[in-house]
Amino acid sequence: MSVERVKEHLKKYGLENKIIEFSSSSATVEMAAEAAGCEPARIAKTLSLLAGEEALLIVAAGDAKIDNTKYKGRFGKKAKMIDREKVERLIGHAVGGVCPFGIREGVKVYLDVSLRRFETVFPACGSSNNAIELTISELERCSEYEDWIDVCKGWEAAKG
Q1: Other beta carbons less than 10 A from residue 82's beta carbon
Q2: Is the pTM for the entire model greater than 0.90?
Q3: Phi-psi bin for 34: left (phi > 0), alpha (psi -120 to 50), beta?
Q4: For residues 105 and 126, what is the distance between their CA atoms, to the nearest angstrom?
Q5: Among 30, 63, 126, 147, which residue has the least CB neighbours within 10 Å?
């Protein structure tokens, strides 16, 4: 089960008990923000993309959108979201619970700079009704990320 894989993954970092279970769905940024009691921008959404044949994850602020020019400059290809029906097979989590924890071997995780303006953020934890509040350094550690990247737009006006 996806949530159990996430708990096992987070256990390596002593964070498995920080997972918050919600009584309502947190499958979208807006729903997650309402359930977590925070602004939508602090939801660390995890985008499932393909760079050629390679599946990758980009964790970005809830108010950020992929900027195709920046993405192509970084990955050499146009951004292509993974089809809904293929996400679980390629990433290890179903849509609504995709997160950078407990994912399939070989899937690379990137953190977008849109997250850096927050002290803490809320990524999902493998289901559509949970999340975890993490500092940016905790997110770096337990996401086992490859690199910080700048491939999003739309959030810059909200910097502060």
Answers
A1: 20
A2: yes
A3: alpha
A4: 16
A5: 147
pLDDT of 16-36, one tens digit each? 999 999 999 999 999 999 999
Give, in order, the Cα–Cα distances in Å from 99 to each of 74, 78, 91: 21, 22, 9
CB 110 within 8 A of CB 149: yes
What is the token pair recorded at 28? 């979208």
